[in-house]
Fold these 3 entries.
Entry 1:
Amino acid sequence: MYYEFTSKPCLLYSPQAADLVIELSQTHKAKPDLTNLVFGTVFSDHMLTIEWTSNGGWQKPHIKPFGNLSLHPACSAMHYAVQLFEGMKAYRDADDKVRLFRPMLNMNRMANSAERACLPAFDRAELVECIRRLVQVDLEWVPKSDSASLYIRPTFLGTEPSLGVKKPSRALLYVILSPVGSYFSTGAKPVSLWADSKYIRAWRGGTGDCKMGGNYGASIYAQYEAVDYGCQQVLWLYGDDHQITEVGTMNMFLFWNNENGEEELATPPLDGIILPGITRQSILELTRKWGEFKVCERYLTMADLRCALKEGRVKEMFGSGTACVVSPVGRILYQGENLHIPCQDDFPQLASRLMKELTDIQVRYTLLVTDINSIAVKGYHPTHPACPPEYLVLN
């Protein structure tokens, strides 16, 4: 039994990594060709599952062979979208070390999403340790490549076997692993965006700051309309003034000379509409540490962008996220006009620098890890005095 004496509900019978049950697969799938890897289509040999009930609390975590789930037809996740997920990565460096990048930030965000979805609280450090053990079991699935990684997808479902719209009495938390290359089929090239107020991704008081499947499922229709207009992604707008919020499934950054003539890196603030991205936070921390230009969380509108482009004040625009890391924007279709964003040699200077420095942190573990308040822990254990860690060495 585990209790946490905070203002949050106690973590009764929270999943414990020490109770982990491991069942190894008797067969092993062939590893994929990394040169033709389509994002999220290939999965490793094992998965992690942890069940919860209101009466019994959290059950023992299990690592077992990858396989299908068995769910009741009235499962609340399928009827009322009582579910959420996370996205994180494991990287292999030149010395064959495998690391997770800032996993506790993902756990914090997952816990916030769970609270909003009325799903049970969990011990974040214990879940990180369970995930670490899963990656250790499937360590050979972490690509030996600078351009690929192992994507980790924690998923949390309400499995209430009832058609009543209510807080679930049963839940399932599971984690699957997928070796991935570039998120976009075009690789590391500037993306084109369709900006239209016709569809809205999120609104104040909603769940835009939570990583819930419903936010993404509802965006697919607009995504396909963007493709019909010859664009790859949607630039989500909000309000009558057409505030810029997110780029596809990414956070958005604008590097420009602002209205006052200051060189500035700007991104929309976390006001409940924007997802608090881990890569977003890392970019803000890195660039503030550099101290080379103003770094600001502020509202930006399409009128601001249009004016800045006409006056030649826009330097770069890019999205950020776990899947793509950094993705430059080359063109925006807005109100029938193609707005061309400066893109020197397909990967502009600041985006290129951020991609390199973040990759150095993720893959090569440079001293910059310290610069963003991250730490590496060998032989990590959830009770380590440095917990919660932001960077874990797995082997």
Entry 2:
Amino acid sequence: MACIIDKFSDDESDLELSGSTLDALKSFYAERDARAEQFAKLQAEAEERHALNVKLSMDAFTEDWNESQFWYSDETATFLAKQLLADATPTTSIAVISAPSVFVQLKNLLNSDAYKDKPKPKLTLLEHDNRFAVFADEFVFYDFAQPLKLPSHLKGAFDRVIVDPPFLSEDCQTKAALTVRWMLKSEETKGEKPKIIACTGERMETLVTEKLYKSYGLRTTTFEPKHARGLSNEFYCYANFEVKPDEGAGAETPEGKGWTLRELGWKEKEGAATAAAAAA
């Protein structure tokens, strides 16, 4: 046995990490420590802002375009959040899937004076970016590639959902829709259709309205979401409910315009009408 141990020790003494391997290890540990430090900083900032009743900001969460992260403008995120909160009760449950800027505005609204005496619904954020774990129990890690790999208590638990799938592919859209259907309460449970908002690219329109969410009555709305840093793809908002204009808001604001639901095939009809008018 001693002989074997001595031989092992001799072999072990010959093992040396190459310079490139050492550099890679140092880089790995440096990145790990930086992520831990950033997480602690974000968590402390979120807790401090909540305690001081200070608005949260998406500026703390830098967009990562490689992860297809494109935050909404504050105006868009706030408007969408208001629609999710409209007529909510303490028993209302709202899920935000891959739309963290809307979740942040939901938090801001519920913490504002305007909502001080209003019911506080339950919020849940499903997100792939672990930086948002600073929201503790309201955060659930989400990978669209595994659409049902979620805590079992989320099944059939939500009255309202907003979803913004990270990629403009049929696979991503379909899996995100599977998550939405799995999480929503049934009509039998609610006595009414749950509210759904889906924000995604224009080229997903037929898939969204005529296949994935057809049974829920989703249609293209007249509201056009805006992104903080712009977006090259044409972006639509789809929903299964209308929003009446707020007469007390500015006529050019999203609240002042509200939104209506477009008919299926609206684009072709508008195109035909435009062509006919031009030919007349």
Entry 3:
Amino acid sequence: MALCSKKRPPEEERRARANDREYNEKFQYAGNCIKTSKYNILTFLPVNLFEQFQEVANTYFLFLLILQLIPQISSLSWFTTIVPLVLVLTITAVKDATDDYFRHKSDNQVNNRQSQVLINGILQQEQWMNVRVGDIIKLENNQFVAADLLLLSSSEPHGLCYIETAELDGETNMKVRQAVPVTSELGDISKLAKFDGEVICEPPNNKLDKFSGTLYWKDSKLPLSNQHMLLRGCVLRNTEWCFGLVIFAGPDTKLMQNSGRTKFKRTSIDRLMNTLVLWIFGFLVCMGVILAIGNAIWEHEVGMRFQVYLPWDEAVDSAFFSGFLSFWSYIIILNTVVPISLYVRYVLSWGLCREPGCFLGKLFSPKVKSWRRNVGSSSFCAVNIL
């Protein structure tokens, strides 16, 4: 899967020549392999822990655990904190690992789909991940488009074809695309094998409804627009076959440009929990400061008289330092103002279901920057077991 993550220099323009892999490879264009997963075996533990400790509650309980490991200030067993914390981290990690496993599985399924690619004048079955910029692909009715293609010819008159773009914009009605007139007659494989036109166009971007470029072939200079393009994720409909030239592949396709990186899921409940924990921790610090000041004053005014009977520890040499240690001791003693048991219950009930539509079912289909909502008379109910 090295092709999925190979870094390339930024582009100012895209140049793609048909049937010439050697020419196109010098530009180091991305292959057609995609990767939507977040982790691998080596990065899962450190990356997942880093993401989990962005939750304020997890960081708070880790901080509390560290304090409890210091014998000079701890009056409670560290065992009471580490067990719930490990339980929360483990449950969340298992859920994230499961989600990412299915992403890997989906990526593998998509990357291994078969497509007919014209190589050395012969149509060959190739996996999607092996498709390259400049390849000519044959699509048949009801097939998904493997990459962003320039339509060359089709079985319909005048190079027309019909596509469904539901995966891109949620629209289920058919859209019409038309080949450039000079290539619309290239329906024969022998003619396509001799096609050596070159496309110069805009660099990869996420604008689904815009494309600008120029096709150079046989002393002709032909302008290209979005009406000549078949984008990855579309489905060929009501058209027996068509041929297309790969312009953008893999992560450079408009579908993947819109998808963005897979992020750590954080719901409004998570954000509310973070805010509440910060406010409660601030209250806890204020209480600890007040009690520590009281301890320092008492040690200075009264406690000094009992040094013969109740001497300070060897590390304590002043009332101020005694108050400083007492501050951390009070933080530990009063830590229950942030109830870890309630947080564990929250993770068990909500943490296993972070999707917005978890309780409502799959009401919406995930689209690229497009959520279509049907407003009707139906009513929905979600039950919170917390």
